[in-house]
Design a protein that fits this description.
The protein is about 50% helix and about 15% strand. It has about 280 residues and is α/β, with parallel strands linked by helices. The strands form three sheets. A six-stranded parallel sheet has the order 3-2-1-4-5-6, sandwiched between helices. A three-stranded mixed sheet has the order 7-8-11, covered by helices on one side. Strand 1 (about 1-5), helix 1 and strand 2 form a beta-alpha-beta unit. The chain is globular and about 65 Å long. Bound molecules: NADP nicotinamide-adenine-dinucleotide phosphate. NADP nicotinamide-adenine-dinucleotide phosphate binds near residues 32 and 120.
Length: about 280
Amino acid sequence: MKIGIVGLGLIGGCLGLDLIAGGHEVYGVARRQATCAQALALGVVTAASTQLASLRTCDVVFVCTPIATIVPMVAQLAQVLSPQAVITDVGSVKGALVEKATRQWPRFVGGHPMSGKSEAGIEAAERGLFEGNSYVITPVTVGGVETDQGAIALIEKLAQELGSVVYHCTPAAHDRAVAWISHLPVMVSASLIHSAIDEPDETVRTLAEKLASSGFRDTSRVGGGNPELGLMMAKYNREEVVRSLKRYQQRIAVTIKHLEAEDWEGLAKVLAETKAARGRFLG
Ligand code: NAP
């Protein structure tokens, strides 16, 4: 299949590597010629260009640029692609963009591979990032017309080739669910790092920096990731992120109460519940 990728960063790069390995022809588009040369050198694309018109004959195009640029990019692609081409995106939020993008291109399919890492950019691209992880597809009905079944089936097939497990849901359900398991953790993890660096006693702060080990590595990972991505999640999924943060704030207040009241039985019950529940999320 002839596949286009616009935005040759972390996700675009990882997609390119896996799709080429799967036997597809991958045409990349980047803003800068230097990125095109780098993508070719890293084997992320079969061909690269700074011009969207180079994707004219592609069967499917993945938009892998930052969330704010996805809808305008779909509008630009609509000027150059053939009518049967499918456009999909990998944006981490869906409600803010899937209906708008579908209005620009009827064969648009909202998608979100639930895979990532702290580093950004094409240099961080690696094979197998999507293997074993979920890939969400968010069909919509716009102007009484449902997302094209053939277009959905095509993206589903490619996601399965990447080794992902496909789920379908509405953009709203996606945004509420990912607020819990992706966006809230970024905000919580960032607040954790902030609280630690706010420690007023310099000796203690320096000691904490030296003592930090696996626990801090696990809990600080997503808060220490790509700041641009964190900001986009907050901006474009604001309501759900605020809702989940408020619920989290209530939970912290309950924990503080347990500690202040020395209610060890209450705290032990909570910790036993959370230990049992964690497996429901991570298998
Ligand atoms: P990234 O590594 O920073 O890559 C973004 C790419 O988009 C870069 O190649 C950048 O090009 C290009 N770009 C930026 N602004 C552009 C514009 N105005 N027009 C054209 N290209 C532009 O970011 P990423 O992590 O791959 O994220 C890309 C998308 O994947 C986002 O929509 C994000 O929500 C989604 N996503 C991210 C993760 C994750 O964990 N990172 C997971 C799932 C989905 P230059 O190199 O020229 O700056």
